[in-house]
Amino acid sequence: MCISRFLIVSVWVVFFSLENVEAFPDTIRHGYANCTSCHTSPGGGGLLNSYGRSLSKELISAWGGNGEEMPLHGLVDIPEGTLDRFLLGGDSRYISRKTQGKSADIDEGFLMQAQVRIGFVFEKLKFLMILGKIENPRMKSDVRNVSPEYYALWSPKEELHIRAGRFEPIFGLRLPDHNVWTRTEAGLLPWLERDTVEFISEGELQFVSLAGFQSISSTTPAQQQTGYSASLYQVFKERYRAGFSMLNSEGQGSRSKAFSLNGTFGFTEKLYSMVEFMRSSNNGTDKDVGFFRAGYEIKKGFVPLFQGQSMRTLGQGASTKLKMGAGFQWFPRPHFEVMTLIENVQVEKENTREYTFLFHYYL
């Protein structure tokens, strides 16, 4: 009953918005629905362009001094035009999590990400890469000097892009949260690296991507995958975006599929929501997975939020899993993000409580 109500409410949100009607939710509510408004990559995330850095101070952060949004916090005078050709960034994330329940009592904290990003920009060609990888964050925080992501991006026209290299294909909401079930059930796990070729057509109101990928050679045989993905996103009234994604992959004795319907909606300059429904199939086991997040900026840089997830295994051995809770995102100054969540997890008749704290620094 709980999962049915959750899905009904979320479906209502999607279609009500489209009748009255990824960008990062903190910018879509200001009318920035396309990722390239702020990011170098048409898939979003990663290196910010100069305009994206200015928005991180003007729209997102609670406070910010002159030039503070720039690399190295503006402490180094960078010659004019340099950042149009050479891009510098990076991410460091620390997570602390506590779980309390009858069968689980976990208290852990670890550095989950420490990476530097660099990019070289030419007229129609860009080269971007990440340096640094933590192999097993829970066990040790040693950072290996390797590149888990790199690619060349060729843009023969302003709206057409082709990229090739080692990266994750575009799929669904494109959230950076690795513990979101719509990502894990689609097989989008941070330690599974892929060699990918992707075609992207990006218009003012429509975004289309097609990709083919293959697991890198060092992936264990049981996790080797070869497949393809496709995504379509449509923007309505500048602040509303709805999308459809599919992903199909095969490996040694395994086959998986995932279909996603998703939406990101900026109802006002302060209120946004994100919704995703996914049907996944892995070696004959089908699951319906749902995700919902809503946030309201009560003061610049401070966004209380509500978040819910659901996962229902279908067929023989059917089961239901729910996770609901609340917290906040806080962007005190450019380069800093703090996020907390308190969630209740229900698996059949057993309940556990999860407390999550995330600190994110971006260069």
Structure described in brief:
By secondary structure, this protein is mainly beta.
Structural class determined from secondary elements: mainly beta
Mean pLDDT equals 86
Shape, per Cα inertia axes: globular
The low-confidence parts are 1-23
Give the CA-CA distance, first to last residue.
Answer: 45 Å
Q: In percent, how much strand structure appears in the residues?
A: over 45%
Query: How many discrete structural domains?
Result: 1
CATH class categorisation: Mainly Beta
* Major beta-sheet overview: 16 strands, antiparallel, barrel
Give the CATH architecture.
Beta Barrel
* Strand tally: 18
The ordered H/E elements are HHHHEEEEEEEHEEEEEEEEEEE
Give the CATH topology: Porin
CATH homologous superfamily assignment? Porin
Helix content percent band: 10-25%
Name the features.
52% strand; single chain; 16-stranded antiparallel barrel; Porin; two-stranded antiparallel ribbon; 363 residues; mainly beta
